[in-house]
Amino acid sequence: MEADAVAEGFKRSIELHGLKFNKLIGDGDSSVSKRLLEMRPYGPNFHIEKIECRNHLLRNYGTKLAAVVKNSKFPVPLRNHISSNAKRFRSAITKAIDYRSNLSSQTKHQKVSGG
Predict the structure, then answer these.
(1) CB 51 within 8 A of CB 24
(2) Which residues have a Cβ under 8 Å from the Cβ of 110 and sit 6 or more positions away?
(3) What is the pLDDT of residues 42-58, one digit of tens each?
(4) Burial of residue 32, with CB atoms counted within 10 A of its CB: 0-12 exposed, 13-18 middle, 19 or more buried
(5) Which InterPro entries would you find in this protein's record (predicted)?
């Protein structure tokens, strides 16, 4: 339902506001960007870039770490290590995001690949 609502907003943006949106700030859920890719609200040659929201990225990362800590399939020493260092891991992710976003001389592909 959310994907359809966002897609409809993109589709009507020219009519309502005289605007074409070329970026979408996402929350890690690919259904909205997939729907926009299928729908192509501005034609086949107009690309809408998805930008991952840092807050959602960190929240999802923390949720996944918490799931590992609670999962008894993983060894206890590993779960204890993750549990006691979760804030450090989150801080490291934040620093990596900041570092990559400040590399203005590199293309997006170079930033992602570490080149």
Answers:
(1) yes
(2) 103
(3) 989 998 888 878 888 88
(4) buried
(5) Mutator_transp_dom (IPR049012)
